[in-house]
Predict the 3D structure of the following.
Amino acid sequence: MDFLKDIFKDIIDKLNTALIVEGRWKMLLGGLGNTLVIAFFALIIGVILGIIVAVIKVAASMNKKSKILAVLDFLSNIYINLIRGTPVVVQLMIMYYVILVSTTNSVLVAIISFGLNSGAYVAEIMRAGIQAVDKGQTEAGRSLGLSSLVTMKEIVLPQAIKNILPALANEFITLLKETSIAGYVAISDLTKAGDRIRYSTYDPFTALLIVAGIYLVLVLGLARLFSMLERRLRRSENR
Amino acid sequence: MKRIMRIAALVLALLLATILFAGCASTPTVDVIKSRGKLVMLTNAGFPPFEYVSEGAVCGVDVDIAREIAAELGVELEIQDMDFDGIIGAIKSGKGDLGIAGMSVTEERLKNVDFSVNYVDSKLVILVKDGNTEITGADTLSGKKIGVQSGTTSDVIATGVDGAEILRYKTFLDAATAMKSGKCDAVVVDEMTANEILAVNKDIVMLEEVLSTEQYAICMRKGNESLQEVVNTVLNRLLAEGKIDEYIANHMASGE
């Protein structure tokens, strides 16, 4: 048992050095704050952008005659292909060093970068969800005398959201974890804070495990929120 | 709740397993290195003239020194280019034999690795954009954004400045690039690298004030005395022959 006691003492020692000594937990807290701020606002940008692009694409596929929609659809395709075709870390650095050169707020650069990135994925998820709703639903709505906008809003979208949610949850989780590359442009996010603890304690194991644990808790929380939402939405099905 | 317990148990099991296996990698003594036939050097190739990338290969003063050490041992040299702040951790865990990266000797680092004799004297200076009249020295850095390379002594010094915001980049070159577009107000960097940056960036100037003086040395795993002895022998010979000054002159872009 002494053996186990030694190990236990070692763990406490390591946690103490990684968190308490020199108030290192403050770095983690600050990093966590930045990570959450970036992920949250990027998520909002991503959802808004995603809805706009998805609606454009769905509308364009339903209304082939409109020239304006065709142009918007073309632009949406370029956007989606550019974003999906390049690594997010490269996009982040292009934003930081090339496009938003004169912006001095690094966190803002990261929010825009991750938001733009997420938007492309959200758009495709939403488009797929909307198009997965049976065509008969739209036809039924239209034949009942509802306008196409009302049909979309009242009949198609509520059903689409249920299709979308699991994939959307996945995307949000990915987004949250992807923000861990913010350190590339000198942002003190959670990962970077862990890095600083890692090289100031020279104990990579504890620092990395703490950081991994925090991400895990965040993701589990997010997943839980989504499963609650899914359950809530499914209630209407059993009536 | 059950799920949380299960995860907690998993994490604890991982923790125990890793602690049990930590430190199992054997120390790369001279015998080990010779029998494997190569010397692994860890560095960060963003620190001219000591290490930088030219024509696709890592070269610089430190690489020349490492070649001499490898020759002395009669083995090949393998260079691993990594983040500077990870070098000491990697040396500790046996991922490489020598950390040669223009690394200054500090108390904190000495607790974790052994160092060779010093081979270069260096000092930390402040770079600002040409025309910046606000920053004239260390006492004017408060409240400013200071760019540094993550995990270097510049990071430590800048972090000690009251009220300053520190931006930690992967390399000093990134920090300087960011300063040019106004993302930070000043960069704290080693003087020789500062000169390299100045040589290619006409819109950056160096302040006269010296923030600290330091000595570079080569780091290796604690207690690796046989390797330390070889490294010291080579360094002392190179120093006596004036070779290191020669290497520096060779690799300075500003000197060409």
